[in-house]
Design goal:
alpha+beta, D-Amino Acid Oxidase, Chain A, domain 2, single chain
């Protein structure tokens, strides 16, 4: 049976569970709910598949997180990544490359070593590497001033929008209604619960609403009378012209908030996050960010000076004050659930 390019167009109708946001979070939730036996699920995406942060990221998958809760969650997800292409019948182009999280600040060394001990206790095979080991493993990298790093051999990258499409098709096959170009513009609250959502295509009744709207989560929550402590931030990345095979692992530097990897076609993809995330969050790129990223990457990899950057793009993320996601039912609005604030 030929594969459809887009999920099936379905009529707008009342549903049991309404998921606002058609990114990775919304679509994976819809798929897993349907897989567990739940029926009458609808996803509302205001634009096209992958229009938000799920289609604008580096798709870096690593388990070298400092906080135990994050490490447990990401390691669990890493196991899913290993078999997700088979489960969803869609090649998400996972490439296990390994990663090095490099450190310049002496104050971070003890924290990094404690994090490795914690990660190892969870079964994550990370290890702390010395400057000499880092230089031997990645001779292309300018390690001057670096004090070591964390090596995660299980880290990898995926095609950034492939997982979105994979979950969309898998959810569609299980009967989930994926409504594209369908913006949620309001909600009706009766008896303390959201019982209707208003869209640009009409109004429907629903029993439960899940807010997976990414950078638009605060606005969606406001429709339900819920205030979220999140704020939007813009991140920018670049891609270069193809270059000879040069870099296999993924490299990131904590102090520079920089990251870079080389694709199978030879391009370098990366960036350096702006200090303080100043400015208005928007989906436009800036010359200042381009210069900052180029300067950092050229310092880290002198051989790449002169390689042409072909294009840049921006994405919006939503961040909480402590950097942790918001998950679960809103206390002030029963039946209104949160899955947002996850950052980048």
């Amino acid at each position: 049976m030929p594969r459809r390019i887009l999920p099936a167009a379905r009529p707008l109708r009342d549903c049991e569970i309404a998921i606002v946001g058609g990114g990775v979070h919304g679509l994976s939730l819809a798929y897993n709910l349907a897989k567990s036996g739940r029926k009458n699920i609808a996803v509302f995406e205001r634009s096209y598949l992958g229009a938000g942060a799920s289609g604008r990221n580096l798709a870096l998958i690593r388990s070298s997180w400092q906080q135990r809760a994050w490490a447990e969650l990401i390691w669990y997800c890493r196991q899913i990544w290993s078999q997700i292409s088979v489960e969803l019948d869609y090649n998400v182009m996972l490439s296990e490359r390994g990663s090095y999280l490099c450190i310049r600040d002496e104050r971070s060394i003890a924290v990094a070593k404690d994090a490795v001990t914690m990660q190892n206790s969870l079964g994550i095979p990370t290890r702390f590497v010395s400057p000499r080991e880092l230089a031997e493993a990645v001779p292309q990298l300018n390690t001057q001033g670096m004090l070591g790093g964390i090596h995660d051999p299980t880290a990898g990258v995926s095609r950034h929008d492939a997982l979105v499409w994979a979950y969309a098709h898998a959810a569609d096959r299980l009967g989930v209604a994926v409504h594209l170009e369908t913006a949620v513009t309001g909600m009706q609250v009766i008896g303390g619960r959201v019982n209707r959502i208003v869209t640009n295509r009409g109004t429907i009744a629903t029993d439960l609403v899940v807010n997976c709207a990414g950078s638009g989560s605060a606005e969606v929550a406001e429709m339900a009378g819920v205030a979220l402590p999140t704020r939007k931030l813009a991140l920018e990345m670049f891609v270069t012209e193809p270059y000879r095979a040069f870099l296999d692992p993924i490299i990131s530097v904590i102090e520079d908030q920089a990251y870079i990897m080389q694709t199978s076609r030879g391009e370098f993809v990366g960036g350096a996050e702006p200090t303080g995330h100043t400015g208005t969050p928007r989906l436009t790129t800036s010359y200042a960010a381009l210069r900052q990223s180029a300067a950092v990457i050229a310092r880290l990899f002198p051989d790449l000076r002169g390689v042409n950057i072909l294009r840049m793009w921006a994405g919006l993320i939503d961040m909480t004050p402590d950097g942790a996601g918001l998950v679960g039912e809103a206390e002030e609005r029963p039946g209104f659930f949160l899955d947002c604030g996850w950052g980048g």
